[in-house]
Write a structure and sequence with these properties.
homodimer, 233 residues, mainly alpha, Arc Repressor Mutant, subunit A, Tetracycline Repressor, domain 2, two-stranded antiparallel ribbon, 12 helices, 2 strands, 70% helix, elongated, disordered C terminus
Amino acid sequence: MARQERAIRTRRTILDAAAAVFDERGYTSATIGEILGRAGVTKGALYFHFGSKEELALGIFEEQLAVTLPPQSSKLQELVDSGLVLALRLCTDPLVRASVGLALDQGALGLDRTPAFRMWIDQITRTLAEAKARGELLPHVEVAETAELLVGSFSGVQLLSQLRCQRQDLEQRVVVLFQHMLPGIAVPAVLARLDISADRGRRALDAGRLEPATGKAAVDAEADRRAGEVAGR
Amino acid sequence: MARQERAIRTRRTILDAAAAVFDERGYTSATIGEILGRAGVTKGALYFHFGSKEELALGIFEEQLAVTLPPQSSKLQELVDSGLVLALRLCTDPLVRASVGLALDQGALGLDRTPAFRMWIDQITRTLAEAKARGELLPHVEVAETAELLVGSFSGVQLLSQLRCQRQDLEQRVVVLFQHMLPGIAVPAVLARLDISADRGRRALDAGRLEPATGKAAVDAEADRRAGEVAGR
């Protein structure tokens, strides 16, 4: 158990170093050597967890999702909470910033950025499907379509916030996003009870917990990608 | 008059060449020399219209906006039309694609990308303000905030569409965006009459016209930027 804990801690140290290097130098220019130097671990330790630069990026995507928030009375409140927590973490956690930066880096040579979006879209699709099963959604809502829209819109809103003011107004912009979207998604009785305030992210995060990821999702995504290559997709 | 027409045509030739070079090589790597070669014009002709690589980018931003669509019975229908026309032109016009690509290129060294977003936001703000004056908007809508949200969301939705399928489903994604946003913006009587179908962009563009820009907006934006520098903003 102690050994596993140590491995998880080393994994996170490596990911934090990779996030910092990707953020400063860009994915394409960053080298494993620089990440090793920054992390202060051995080559063997790094390659035990990550086989390549791309696996490091996948690890960052996955780690960013490893947050558990407290359950709420509606699934749509949980959706709002996760969006506002992501907005907050984008302002405070370099690993989360690197994750979104990599996903949106059109110049990242050799990096398949689709797993990042797929992870976000899958997570929101699950939450919306549960909301639908509980009768929280308006009848016309198509869960997959709405999930893609939310992920796309959030990505663009945070890009604009970054450009305009280094994300200082990001939480408020995400509030505005939900205020505009939710009337087209939620039944009125649920809509009326949603708390969509800018400090909601801080409160939800304080009540939740961050859990270091195990690396499984990254491995799955990589296997999926390789299977796709074999199938000639 | 003939001379002015020729100048406008040369300006567009240069911008098309710049758009192609920026698209292929990225803003940072592109050189004026390559753009000259592609455009087949003299150095003097290029510098008559554009003083620098950044002015070429501003010219592309401006040219992309130079489209006039037929007036509709509601201002919100005009907003929908302009969004769907932009989606269509992103799929068909390399200059429009370059414009959005430049605006979203985080690696574009030395390029101030804010004028592009400002032009889009200003245009939508004007349309929404007119819609508000006509009583088309729900009372709580704040025009500037909603305009920023629409531009941010559109940017992200098109990025995701580009990543997933080279923008083949962009028009449909923009339909979904409007379907989700407009119930939070429009009064019901206007909402019920809006045409938000994927082929709306094609119909609006066929009935409208593209007008070559004169370069004035780019000059204004540059003057604005320089004034900002002087004021130490």
